[in-house]
Amino acid sequence: MLSAPFWYRFIYMNISALCQRSKYYLAWQIADLVCNASGLGFNGYDENGKAKWNLCTNVNIIQLETSTSIKHFIDNWNISTQRWIRAVAYERLPKGRTLAAFVLSAMWHGFYPGYYCTFVSGAIFVYAGRVIRQYVRPIFQINDYTKSLYALITWIGTIASINYMALPFVLLGLKHSLQFYSLPCLEIMSLISRHYFDLIKKDLFFDEITKLILENLEKISTNLDTQISNEKILKTIKFIEEFARCLATSDLRQMNSIDLNDCCKLWYSLLNSKFSSENHLVNV
């Protein structure tokens, strides 16, 4: 199998993982049937007065197999255990909650090395997925066609990632897991992707904003009837740059003490000037 072509191993991996999931689907569906037959699955009524029988439901197969993110997949898999892990670990920790939840899940399953290979990989994929979704998803929100394309791409990526990280869970042993992960390309790609988008988030974001602000303010200031001191312009630039930096790091508490009043007055002067922004502003 290790000497087989990549496309063959990829198809084999996905078919094998689907077959492995099917036995869990069967067991959980039978358990759900028994609970509902005994009345334990009754969960009240919805807004239309229809009875809900999902109190003991442990898997949502359709939502799971059509997931466009690993988080959505996990939310619909082994639901009762996920609810317990969230209450015990995830919601109690201020930092490192995702990794802690995955490690606890591995310990809950047992101590086979394959479990830890699977769940540590899962944490890496979730971390990367959050960052990539934050930056890539808005690019595709143009029309229905691009939204559908994004959904298709993320569905393929999600299912392939789940199948890739789940195989050591079945193999159990460290030797076979390491053979399967002899080229851990998805973990490496996930770490690189997360690091790359973090660089964009923390550095390039406010650098580009500052560059655009400088270009526009220079053009505006040269076309104003009233003189505005360079000191005030620089103060405004400093304020906006600092604000952009804090937005990029998601911590507005890092804002330095800047005279916000002067900055607001300057922007008010710019907006109320006779300068026409349509003719002079740099196109963004």
Brief digest:
It is a multi-pass membrane protein. With 284 residues, this protein is mostly helical.
Question: What does it look like?
Answer:
It is found in: Membrane. Keywords: Acyltransferase, Membrane, Transferase, Transmembrane, Transmembrane helix. Pfam families: MBOAT. This protein has 2 domains: about 5-185, no CATH class; about 200-280, no CATH class. It has about 280 residues and is mainly alpha-helical. The model is unreliable at about 185-195, about 200-205, about 225, about 245-260 and about 275-284 (pLDDT under 50). It has helices at about 5-35, 60-65, 70-75, 80-90, 95-110, 115-135, 145-170, 175-180, 185-220, 230-250, 260-270, 275-280. α9 packs antiparallel against α10 (about 230-250). The longest helix has about 35 residues, at about 185-220.
For the terminal residues, how far apart are their CA atoms? 52 Å
How many runs of DSSP E, i.e. beta strands? 0
Q: Which percent band covers the strand fraction?
A: under 5%
Helical percent range? 55-70%
Shape: globular
Our Rg estimate from Cα atoms comes to 26 Å
Largest sheet: none
Total individual domains: 2
Low-confidence blocks of residues: 186-197, 199-206, 223-227, 247-260, 273-284
Total helical segments: 12
Helices and strands, in order, run as: HHHHHHHHHHHH
Secondary structure class reads: mainly alpha
List the helices and strands and how they pair.
Elements: H1 6-37, H2 61-65, H3 70-75, H4 79-88, H5 97-109, H6 113-136, H7 144-171, H8 174-180, H9 185-221, H10 230-248, H11 260-271, H12 277-280
Helix pairs in contact: 1-7, 5-6, 6-7, 6-9, 7-8, 9-10, 10-11
